[in-house]
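Contributing new records

If you add data, match the layout below exactly. Sequence lines come first and carry their own label; structure lines follow with theirs. Keep one chain per record. Anything else will be rejected by the validation script.
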Amino acid sequence: MLDLKFIRSNPEAVREGLRLKRVDAPLDELLELDERRRKNLFAVEQLKAERNENSKAVAECKKTGQDASGLIERTRVIGQEIKALDEELAQIEARIQEILLAIPNIPHPSVPEGDSSDD
C-alpha cells in the first residue's frame, strides 16, 4: 500500500503507475478526501483550543463571581461541533483507507508495460 504522503506529493507518478498497471482507482477522490481530512483536523484542533480557553475563562469567572453562562453555552456548542467533525473524520478516513487498498504499488521503470492488469 502506498503512503498517503507519497501520493499527495507525487500524484502524477501514481497516475502513471495506475495507467501502466491498467488499474482504475479513484485517485482524484482520494486527494480530495485527504484535503477535507486535513481541513477537518485543523478545525477540530482549533475548536479544542477554543474549548480549553473557554474552560479556563469559566473557571476564572466562577472564582470572581461573574456570570459565565454565555461561555458555558459556547463550550457546549463547541463540544457538539467537535463531535460532528470527529464523526465526519471517521467516515473520511474509512473511505481513504478503502481507496488506498485499491491502489497498487508503482511498477519499477524497468518493468515492461503489459497488455492487461494481469501482466
